[in-house]
Write a structure and sequence with these properties.
The protein is an alpha/beta fold. The protein has seven helices and nine strands, in the order αβαβαβαβαβαββββα. It has a single domain, classed as Glycerol-3-phosphate (1)-acyltransferase, CATH 3.40.1130.10.
């Protein structure tokens, strides 16, 4: 099958499958006040979430005009096509390919739109924060909102990130953490570790 045909199939069926599968979940939101208060005060925010949690969150925040950093790899292309039908705008790049151009686009977009970044993407190491999201927070002055999610019943893929695919009708939770600010360059290292710990702790609080 030609690549163009594959892309068309993903773009058409991807949003439908996400709506059916994730739409069937019984999702409970926890500590949404952190997200709501930050957006009220700062207008837009930077969402941070592990790469393996992408599926549930892509449905939960659909049609909010969020701009997502997606890698230029082939897997990234499939993700970009699938979420385009859910109202997301993809900014293509990563720490290894197209990073500087992507950072310029993210910096520009952050004044008007929420940004979504998987700080351990596109290829790991799993649950290790890369520098880009901290630098973006520093340059824009926008708060990073850590987010985690999980489903009680799920499949866990044998991939580098152990990607999570919830099972139909499963209970699920989305939890938001306290905002993280990077006010000085000297804070990049300490806030990087703070973000990593925050995301790990949020995952533990879900209890699945």
């Amino acid at each position: 099958m030609k690549q163009k045909t594959k892309n068309k199939i993903v773009k058409l069926l991807g949003p439908c499958l996400i709506n059916i599968l994730i739409g069937s979940l019984r999702i409970h939101g926890i500590d949404k006040k952190y997200q709501a208060n930050a957006k009220k005060k700062y207008g837009t925010v930077i969402y941070a979430f592990w790469h393996n949690r992408l599926l549930i969150l892509s449905y939960a925040h659909r049609f909010e005009n969020i701009h997502i950093l997606i890698s230029k790899h082939k897997d990234g292309e499939y993700i970009a096509l699938a979420i385009s039908g859910l109202g997301y705008k993809s900014i293509r790049g990563s720490t290894t390919r197209g990073g500087m151009r992507a950072m310029v686009e993210l910096n520009r977009a952050a004044s008007q739109y929420d940004i979504g970044i998987t700080p351990d993407g596109p290829s790991g190491p799993k649950e290790e924060v890369q520098d880009g999201i901290l630098y973006l927070a520093y340059k824009t002055g926008k708060p990073i909102i850590p987010v985690s999610c999980n489903a009680k019943y799920k499949w866990v893929l044998n991939s580098w990130d152990n990607f999570i695919i919830p099972k139909l009708l499963s209970p699920a939770k989305i939890i938001y953490g306290k905002p993280i600010f990077v006010n000085k360059k000297e804070e990049l290292s300490s806030k990087k570790e703070l973000l990593r710990k925050s995301l790990i702790n949020l995952g533990k609080k879900i209890g699945y």
